[in-house]
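Students often ask what a holo structure prediction actually looks like on paper. The answer is less mysterious than it sounds. You provide the chain, you provide the ligand, and the output is a string of discrete structure tokens encoding the 3D arrangement of the protein together with zinc ion.
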Amino acid sequence: MLKMPKVFRLAKAASVHSNHRRYKMGCVIISNGKPVSVGFNSYKNHTITRKFHGSQTIHAELAALLPLKFKKIKHGIAVVFRQDKEGNPRMARPCSVCQKILASYGIKDYIYTTNGGFSKEHNEI
Ligand SMILES: [Zn+2]
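The corresponding structure tokens follow.
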């Protein structure tokens, strides 16, 4: 089994709280090398989800960002984790909507699980 970077540990711990039937995602927001917030996806009817995603699911990234009250995150990294029932990492790249929301907080770097591994990305949008 592939060794996952330590940074995923907290995101994984958050993901188990998800009430989503198929996709249990966890997200940690890192600022200046320290975790400042965690979140997981869930079914919840929230004005902000309807506005941004047009659905009733709060994505893990958004759940982690909401408590931060729209303040700018310095040297921010979004860490997103998902695994399947067997415990294998699965694709958790932030969707285009979450990328825009993350960018509004000044977060352009992501680390996320992929099918069988993980990836890092810097996104200027
Ligand atoms: Zn999303």
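The radius of gyration is 13 Å.
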